[in-house]
Fold:
Amino acid sequence: MQSRTGEIQHPRPASTLYSEDLAPIPVDKRTWTTWNYAALWISMSLCIPTYMLASSLIEGGMNWWQAILTIFLGNTIVLVPMVLNGHAGAKYGIPFPVLARASFGTSGANIPALLRAIVACGWFGIQTWIGGFALYQMFRLWIPTLETLPPVFPVSFGLQTGPAICFFLFWLLNMYVIYLGVESIKKLLVFKAFFLPVAALALLFWAISAGNGLGPILEQPSKFASTADFFAFFFPALTGMVGFWATLSLNIPDFTRYAKSQQAQIKGQIIGLPPSMTLFSFIGVVVTSATTIIYGTTIWDPLVLAGKFENKLIVSMAMIAVAISTLATNIAANMVSPANDFANLAPAKITFRMGGYITGVIGILIFPWKLIADPSGYIFTWLVGYSSLLGPVGGIMIADYFFVRKQQLITSELYSATGIYRFKNGFNPAALVALLLGILPNVPGFLTTIQLIPADSVPAWISHLYNYAWFVGFLVSGLVYLVMMRSYQPLPSNDLPHVAFD
Structure:
């Protein structure tokens, strides 16, 4: 915490809400500059799901500029909560779970942390499926019988035996890395940083060459019959683009707590996020559009596309490299965070390693192969679906920090089980009600989308709210929270500790 002289003082370690991992970062150890944040976003943007994000829009019917515009708009929009939520991390040096205590309560903060953890489990499953399918694309070239193995799963699972075996093998590899510890992944992250950009550019040059130049590729028309059809796809697609980084827009304080200044995190994210996502997505758009010319059908999955190449050695090398880079990204981006969240629920019983195993099991149970089997599942079920949970959390946290507390927090109280952020038994009723009311409007649309209830069982305008799930949840929860907290009185400014910078 900060003293009135600006010196960082850690809360008493005896507190059950305190750990070295959650403690505020001292000012002299906040070393991340603008370019560190730009590099972070460039690295995170260069991944197979980003490529699939862009290509899914082409498969869904957009032409190249409609897809690129949608991606750019989505990432520009999500940049706003990203920067706003990052403000508290940079100002106070605190991570996301600690910041959430100010709005949800010292115990209630586990709710948004768990929501984020479940989503990260889903991403873990998706990345694990991608890595496993890369291995399958390689093994089937050398072991053709892998493609003809008899089915062992029910038809409803939508899972062939060969890909399932490779998925499970890659899953075991991820679990083994967790057993060894995440330090073992550092060198693989460096490999990914060099390999994926080179591989992406090679794929782009192949598409331009095989597609008879960039002109014919970019001339591929939109598949929508009317403007109404376009907007019916555009708005949920835009919500999906926002949802792609909705998790990071919440836990961005985990990174901005290391910022040398507010300007470092703000400028770094502006430079790194929209441009890198748009540029890498452009490669996905061009390559996917080219497949329509080259193969006569749109291939949105880069691993399926790579499997069409005839040279066994080239395909094998590419798939091994994809598997290695996916393993590195998966552990760093999708395993560490939920493992810590689960461990935080019961520190005495759940270790980081056990939290990682829990993440792995949930990653299987979410059936990731179904989520990315087609663009509809990827965008409408997965991206839009979880944005309906995380949008409300973002609305509450931003409303609390900027409007209720005017960017003023008492750091030591965030680590006190009996302090001002305890509210009622550790929970802030206003945040819980606002969260529920923000999620509620999107439930009917989600249930009709996954076909649990008939589409005509609810009024069309209610089910259509789901197309704007993140926006609806963000605004509803934020406004409800402000109304319910209107009589709340934070401590006067002269009772607040001095901070090093704004």
